[in-house]
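FAQ: What does the model actually see?

It sees only this:
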Amino acid sequence: MTKETIKEKILFFMESHTKKSFSMEEIAEGLQLQKSNDFKLLVQTIAMMEREKLVEFTKKGKIRLPQKNIAIEGTFRANERGFGFVTIDPEEPDVYIPKEAVNFAMDGDKVAIDIVQPADPFSDRGAEGKVIEIKERAITQVVGEFIAYDEKEVSETDLYGYAVPKDKKMTGLTFNIAAQGIKPVDGSIVIVEVTHYPEKEYPRSLEGLVKKVIGHKNDPGMDILSIVVAHGIPTSFPDEVVAEADKVPDSISESDLKGRRDLRDQVIVTIDGEDAKDLDDAVTVRKLENGNYFLGVHIADVSYYVTEGSQLDQEAYERGTSVYLTDRVVPMIPQRLSNGICSLNPHVPRLTMSCEMEITPEGNVVNHDIFQSVIQTTERMTYTAVNEILEEQNPETMDRYKNLVPMFKEMGELHHILEQMRERRGAISFEDREAKVLVDSNGHPQDILLRTRGVGERLIESFMLAANETIAKHFNDLKLPFIYRIHEQPKEEKMQRFFDFAAVLGILVKGTKADITPKDLQNVLEQVSDKPEEAVINTMLLRSMQQARYSEDNYGHYGLAADDYTHFTSPIRRYPDLIVHRLIRSYSGTISEALKEKWDQALPDIADHSSKMERRAVEAEREVDSMKKAEFMADKIGEEYEGIISSVTRFGIFIELPNTIEGLIHVNSLKQDYFHFIENHMALVGERTGMTLKIGQKVKIRVEKADPETKEIDFEFLEAEEVERLETPKQKKRQDPRKNRPTDRKEKNKKPFTQKKNKKKGKKPFYKEVAKKKKGKNKKK
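And it is asked to produce this:
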């Protein structure tokens, strides 16, 4: 009998038994190899199988088949500091991947991981893993600034030079540019197609070819364009899309009106910002004889021109949304449509999708109608003008629009009714502080202004919310396939952290972490309204919320306390809205099983892709915002400002200035003391001084650094308002152990122990004497 034959018998024997491990004697008995020579051959074969990793020994010396590690697949998200997280399921916490276990994975890669440390629910510690395989690379091209080599270096390295990536998550990686194809000039912003990824021999290097030169770093607007391209956002429309847009007529014809309700005789207005060019929503309001209100919301019928499966439609799907960046917009559909035939410009007929509602004085929609229409807006109003009318500030404005003033007054009434209705049912209203960066013709920031939201802005928001809810409820009641805008209930672990934080501030939160209602959270915000802790509670609650997304399943909108919600009102700039219009049109005729099956199949992908494109746009917008704010502060080094602590982490505190600019004070630059991070208080506390720095606290800072390249702003701490001091863990340990003992009469008559008294006698503090005695005992041992 050969070793190979015995090997096969051993494997069959072990695989066919339910038992996991065997002694050598058990295998010998099972295979009837107890004779001396047979047993010797068995031992030799087992040793060979161990070397081949076909079997392994347990700690007790038994033999077993190798344990198969079940690899878990997910998406890797890189952090600029080298570590990362893997998302396995959006509903579950991410798995932490330490720097040394990343195994050359890059942001967005599909990876297989092993769990090396399971989650510990009792200590609130998440799972830790290591990347064992990269299944699919997400990054195939990179945007960066090209640094050229001289001729000698090119001949020695066979490289044109290297590129510095614009993405902060790739900090520390070198992108070598092969000496083939396009040779850019030094300082060019380039798109590099990756040909080689990091590996064992080159752990921090990639190699690629220059695919395209976008421009030079000194070109006006190149900084923003670099970010746009780095996020994979298209900067121009393909020729075939432009050609299709050019075929769309500039005006509507009689044939376009077929099957539409003609509303051109109604008084309908658009209300937008002064600089808006794509006017996609128009409204009308009037009070009915029965005391109810009539609200008409009319939205540009983009889906009539962007037809299903067309080049325009495919491009709009890919983009998902328009992207708004400081001094420019990257549109979802060509501007010839968005600013032309699809814009509800005044005094010209336009095709629309309408939602008319009858609303009671309590804010309930009792009747509604959804249909295709044609309108002709009476006036193009601005938020400024409407605010002046509602507040009766400007007689000239009142006189100019005197025929429309009564309607605007009724709009104001209906808005307050709808606002109060949302408040009654528990909609959560966060204070929203948005800033607008004003730039010059070269893109350099000149000022940062806080956006103000008057009644005019909030009025339009109320009307759009009402239409979105009405549309969603209509199709949910019909049980037809549909796309919803959902906002799910906060996750339990995040709510628990919020509960703990609120309790520290003495704020009572009704409900439990598993089933807390929006009304409960609204009550929390009301408790702290106009109090010092309002800002910190707003911030912490906002961070506890889940991210809104699109879905084919209707889970309701938690933040709005709405059972049904969708996006219907902006088809020029959001693809899901365009799909809602397309669904309305497709359901206006015969609804067959084939039609329902078609949308059942299509909507999950549309919802998922639209959510991803929305997040991509938000990331690009935030990155540009951060860059321009850093650029704005670059010439203000050394200047002093007052702000509030907006966030506290182990590595420092973030300070937000009144104009929303945020900067970091690193914990290492806090020279006043050694600071401990107290997580449940979201505070840093000085070990020696007890100085406490926590969210919402007013501070004075000096600008130390502002770097538009890294988009980072650093502040120097000067002073902070006095707040109640917290104790560090060390300070708690150092308290007199007799302090909490129950006192008797003898104890009451004793003079209190103090460190100060001991110092006068030349003694060391009590806790140091105890430590010294313990140390002596240990030495004796």
